[in-house]
Amino acid sequence: MRDCFFYNYHTERKRGHQLIYPKSKRPGFIISCLIIISIIFLLASVLQGCNKDTEETSAVSQATTQDSNASDTTDNPAAETIDDTEEDDLQNAQEETVEDKITDNINKFSGYELGNGILDSRPLAIMVQNNPVARPHSGLIYADMVFELVSEGGVTRFIAVYSSNDADIIGPVRSGRIYFAEIARSLDPIYTFWGTYPQAYEAIKKMDLDAFDANSTAYINYTTAGWRDPSRNEALEHTAFIDTYGIKEDAEKYGYDLEGGQSPLAFKIDAPENQRGSISEITVNFSTEAYLAGFVYDKQTNKYLKTLAGQPHSDFETKKQITLSNVIVLLTDINGPIDSAGHMEVRTTGTSAQGEAYYFMDGNVVEGTWARETIQDPFEFMDTEGKQVLFNRGSTWVCIIQSIERLSY
């Protein structure tokens, strides 16, 4: 075996001879071999250490990646928040859909889609008496809106508003008053009544209001649409009735437009049953028990059944009880009597700071305000944040009183 694992020769010339010695016989040879072997072992150790570090680094990297992935899917609250936010946004969008304003192809006073018997007529605003001896009423079940407030002696009267439907008989029709005419003017209607006193005639003529008097030709345009039915009452003032067809015929003769009008109402879809409230009864005390207006809520139908003096408020001809989709209560200044005849004075305009309001629908109440700058302007119905209130489609009853103490629910 050769030293250092190889055989080599060293050639040396001496006295002309060539002497050949094995390299292992030289003294420095062993030292050189040891140095080389040490270097080899050192390099091997270094390489082994590098491989180990690389494996540990790779393992740490894999573990970190796994932890990161796990954190993204299970321990990341931001991810959960995003998912929750998306669900909340969807729910909010669904709730907002319920509250979306209906605007397409509807009657502006009822919210019902036009066609299938639903008209889009200019509103007819007709004065109706509410004296107990004048009851039961005719035709109020067909009205889109009814405004109710006091006249002389605490007796209330109605402004019955017809746009979606015609009615064959409405009444008993009664005389007009200045503040009733001002309220009617907010709708830009054809205002119809059965007589009034001279000062009221003069005020009505100044309102830029298309109007008919069914009693006389002396002051304003006369309509032949009315008649008297003595079988309904012994008192002459409670026997006057009218229909919408005759009013419209006379309107054409006098050049009154049968289209148009302005409505204070905006509409939405009824709330689903699980979002309906539990306000089961509303009572408005205008003056005495004889004029107590009640509204009993039916959650299943989402309608209010009208009562009058504690009894169902029913139609004379059909015997059906009046049903409503919305009840509005407006607070304003009511003063009087202001003269010997017992006439009242009612503020019909004002800012939202002056007008408190309560809007009932879906078994709930929305507290808010009302406003109206001039008698030519429609009423604005707003919530406490100044947003327009949206109402359910159907009929609406508006009660106007002077204090919150007269409202209970």
Sheet-strand content, in percent, reads 25-35%
First CA to last CA: what distance? 119 Å
Output the helix-strand order: EEHHEEEHEHEEEHEEEEEEEEEEEEEEE
Cross-sheet strand order for the largest sheet? 7-6-3-5-4-23-16-19-20-21
CATH topology of the largest domain: YerB-like fold
Our count of helices gives 5
Overall tally of domains: 2
Give the helix level as a range of percent: 10-25%
Strand tally is: 24
Q: Based on CA inertia axes, which overall geometry fits? A: globular
The radius of gyration is: 46 Å
Q: What's this model, at a glance?
A:
The protein has 409 residues and is of the alpha+beta class. The protein has 5 helices and 24 strands.
Model description:
With 409 residues, the chain is of the alpha+beta class. The chain has two domains: 3-62; 124-408, 3-Layer(bba) Sandwich (YerB-like fold). It contains five helices and 24 strands. The strands form six sheets. Strands 7-6-3-5-4-23-16-19-20-21 form a ten-stranded mixed β-sheet, sandwiched between helices. Strands 11, 12, 13, 14, 15 and 24 form a six-stranded antiparallel β-sheet that branches. Strand 12 (292-298) and strand 13 (303-308) form a beta hairpin. The radius of gyration is 46 Å and the shape is globular. The termini are far apart.
